[in-house]
Design brief:
By secondary structure, the chain is an alpha+beta fold. Helices cover 42% and strands 19% of the residues.
Length: 389
């Protein structure tokens, strides 16, 4: 599980890929060969001479290959052969005389151990190579994610902003969820979206959408016009992707605008989960049932984008999120009840709220999230706070 927190400051918990190699294996896996040998030494003296437990040392090199490099596996092979010989010809350990040392069964065990050790050495080398390659891919993907999702300013005027991104795919760390906040002459304009599809095409689509939004947010006077312009940009892009899957060409999104001179928030919903308005004693979805079509499908449906206006007073918070939150499942298959959960929490600051949401999601899904998740929260500061700052 990978978490990317965005604000005007760098989060020390951003990923673990540093481009320097794979992460170390768990301690229990590194110590497994030692425990394996200890079990053999404990069982060998108490088993009949006709049933030498030392034969299971043939597998020791492969056990070592799970967590160690080829050098350690080679040493484990030599150690296993030597220990087999000691147990075969040492009366004090196994009750056998020296003649067993070169018994044909033991000689066969030595040869098998050497062959398994050779195989284990190649397996360990191949595993190390694959892990290093994966670590490099993770590092490059993390850099790509940082470029795609530029840091959201922590403060824009009288708004405090926080965001997070959770990737369910630790191998890639780049998904199609996106968010942005742009200060304009029309107010602070927010975007959150979810590209349908996975892989490089979804990332390219997200990058194109963010680029179109960052440019058009300054030019278009109204949110419906802004959504329509981004829609046009996405349709133009889709025409250049003939032959790709249609499911990877559309994006659900929410556009929001918080003007500086009015205590309102304007929302245009393009087939996306509705935002939450959070204020003391009230948590509700901003959903009038007039959601427009997802971006790049508007030209097919023909419905215009409609703007909804809601009161947004000092102290209110607006939560934009992707469906990875509401589609998080508990072990019994039930979906994450976002509204009910938030209603049960005490009032929290934006950063604390996202920390609480992050932890609650992992607890609810038992650290097993099946979809990428993004969230963006905006809080209108009380007037007395603005006066002090």
């Amino acid at each position: 599980m990978y978490r990317l927190r965005r604000s005007d400051r760098t989060d020390s918990r951003v990923g673990s890929g540093d481009g320097q190699g794979p992460s170390p294996e768990p301690a229990w896996l590194r110590w497994l060969p030692v425990h394996y040998v200890v079990v053999v030494l404990l069982l060998e003296p108490v088993t009949p001479v006709q049933w030498p437990v030392s034969f299971v040392l043939i597998a020791l090199p492969l056990v070592a290959a799970f967590a160690h490099g080829p050098g350690v596996v080679a040493l484990a092979t030599v150690f296993a052969i030597a220990l087999q010989g000691i147990l075969a010809g040492t009366p004090c350990c196994a009750g056998r005389d020296v003649g067993y040392l070169l018994d044909r069964h033991y000689v066969a065990a030595y040869i098998c151990t050497a062959l398994v050790g050779t195989l284990g050495t190649f397996v360990a080398a191949h595993r190390i190579h694959r892990e290093r390659t994966l670590a490099d891919v993770r590092f490059v993907a993390e850099i790509a994610q940082c470029v795609l999702l530029k840091p959201v300013p922590h403060r824009i005027g009288d708004l405090v902003l926080e965001s997070f991104y959770l990737s369910a795919a630790a191998e890639a760390r780049v998904g199609g969820d996106l968010f942005e906040a742009v200060p304009t002459a029309h107010g602070v304009r927010l975007l959150i979206g979810d590209v349908r599809g996975k892989g490089l095409l979804a990332v390219e689509t997200a990058a194109a959408l963010l680029g179109a939004f960052r440019e058009a947010a300054h030019d278009e006077p109204g949110l419906p016009a802004l959504a329509a312009r981004v829609e046009t940009s996405m349709a133009r892009r889709a025409e250049q992707l003939a032959g790709s899957e249609v499911a990877e060409r559309f994006v659900t999104a929410v556009f929001a605008e918080i003007p500086a001179d009015e205590r309102v928030v304007r929302v245009v919903n393009c087939g996306h989960p509705p935002p939450l308005l959070i204020r003391p004693g009230e948590v509700r979805e901003l959903d009038t049932g007039r959601s427009g079509p997802p971006l790049n499908l508007g030209v097919l449906v023909g419905d215009p984008y409609r703007v909804d206006v809601y009161a947004f007073r000092p102290g209110d918070q607006l939560l934009l999120y992707t469906d990875g939150i509401t589609e998080t499942r508990a072990p019994d298959g039930s979906f994450y009840p976002l509204v009910e959960r938030v209603r049960s929490w005490e009032p929290l600051r934006p950063g604390e709220f996202l920390d609480r949401l992050h932890g609650d999601l992992l607890d609810y899904g038992q650290d097993d999230l099946h979809d990428d998740t993004a969230a963006l929260i905006a809080c209108l500061l009380p007037d007395r706070v603005n006066e002090r700052t």
